[in-house]
Structure of Pyridoxamine 5'-phosphate oxidase N-terminal domain-containing protein:
Amino acid sequence: MQTTEIARREGPERRRETLERLDRERDIWLSTAHPEHGPHQVPLWFRWDGQALWMCTGATSVTARNAREEPRVRLALPDTSDVVLVHGEAECFPARDVPQDAADGFTAKFGWDPRKEEGPFVYLRVTPRTVRAWRGEHELRGRLLMRDGAWVV
C-alpha cells in the first residue's frame, strides 16, 4: 500500500483555506444544548458573510429553542480529513426581522427564501469566537486560528 505525505500548512495558508471553505461550502453541523435536555446536533445549510455564519431553521425546532436558551454553539464542516471547528454564540432573528442583506444572501446561495414560507422560520447568526482547522495529526499543533473573536494568524 502506498501512502501520500500531506504537507503541513502554516497559519496564513490554513486561515486562507478555511475562509475559502466557509465561503464555498453549503452544509455545516450545528451543535446546540439545552440545560435540561442536553445536546442536539443537526446539519444545516449555511452562508458565510465574511463576519458570521447564517443558518435557517423552523422557529419551533429544537435547534431554535436551544439557541434561545443557551446561545453558545459549536459548528463543524463535514469533512473529517479537513477539519474546521467554530465556536460562537447564536443570535436568533425571526424571518420578518432578519437583516435584508443576510436573508438576500442566503436566498441567492440556496435558491430558497424562508421569508416566503408559510411556517415560521428563524435565522441564526453565529459570529465566531474560536476557529480551529487541521488536516491530520501533523497539523494539530497550530490548529487555533481565532481566539476571543480575533484571528491569531
